[in-house]
């Protein structure tokens, strides 16, 4: 089963889970949850800046940040990187304990803190197992523009599906169950 990247390098998909034989997107509701979640997330991540560049330049100079080319981590807690900063991330991940945090909530924050504290990969440290997998080299794969367009459609589709679910469950239980909410944020008291 061929593994492919879509839009950004890093996350890899089983080709026949996300594409049909004609190179069309497989129907979203037939995709495994993990593949669908990451695919939908990618639609929001393309065109975002590299995290490390952003940390270096700050909001005021964020135009100098390179666009992200690579994504690592879990959807919603992912790290975006450009080619220049990928070695720093890989060094943190492999040599500085980052891999132990894979899948953890603090994954991205820990990398950011490490980077902001002026830690970098040693000179010459590089991605050594780079697999080039430009989408254009694969048969029938959509261009990045086409992929973006389809991902936007997919996001629309997903939103409608949620709306539908919300409509279906309406009236069943009007009370919001506070226990189900993830409230780990501290709020100031009202005084
Ligand atoms: Zn960068």
Commentary on this structure:
With 191 residues, the chain is an alpha+beta fold. The chain has a domain at 3-122 and 140-151. 37% of the residues lie in helices and 11% in strands. It has 6 helices and 4 strands. The protein has helices spanning 15-18, 33-45, 51-57, 86-95, 107-116, 144-169; strands at 3-6, 8-14, 70-74, 77-81. It has a two-stranded antiparallel ribbon with strand order 1-2. Helix 2 crosses helix 6 (144-169). Bound molecules: zinc ion (ZN).
List keywords for this structure.
191 residues, alpha+beta, two-stranded antiparallel sheet, 4 strands, binds zinc ion
SSE inventory with pairings:
Elements lengths: L2 E4 L1 E7 H4 L14 H13 L5 H7 L12 E5 L2 E5 L4 H10 L11 H10 L27 H26 L22
Antiparallel strand pairs: 1-2, 3-4
Helix pairs in contact: 2-6
The structure holds zinc ion (ZN).
Number of helices: 6
Oligomer: single chain
Shape: globular
Order of helices and strands: EEHHHEEHHH
Can I get a quick summary?
Helix content is 37%, strand content 11%. The protein is of the alpha+beta class and 191 residues long.
């Amino acid at each position: 089963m061929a593994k492919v990247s879509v839009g950004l390098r890093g996350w890899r998909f089983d080709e026949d889970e996300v594409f049909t034989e004609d190179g069309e997107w497989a129907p979203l509701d037939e995709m495994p949850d993990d593949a669908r979640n990451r695919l939908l997330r990618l639609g929001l991540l393309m065109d975002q800046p590299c995290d490390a560049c952003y940390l270096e330049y700050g909001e005021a100079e964020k135009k100098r940040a390179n666009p992200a080319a690579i994504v690592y981590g879990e959807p919603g807690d992912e790290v975006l990187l450009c080619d220049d900063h990928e070695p720093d991330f890989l060094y943190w991940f492999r040599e500085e304990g980052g891999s132990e945090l894979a899948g953890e909530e603090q994954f991205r924050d820990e990398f950011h803190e490490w980077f902001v504290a002026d830690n970098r990969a040693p000179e010459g440290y590089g991605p050594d197992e780079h697999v080039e997998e430009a989408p254009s080299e694969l048969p029938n794969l959509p261009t990045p523009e086409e992929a973006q367009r389809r991902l936007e459609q997919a996001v629309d589709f997903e939103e409608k599906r949620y709306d539908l679910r919300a409509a279906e469950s309406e009236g069943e239980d009007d009370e919001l169950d506070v226990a189900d909410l993830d409230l780990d944020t501290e709020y100031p008291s009202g005084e």
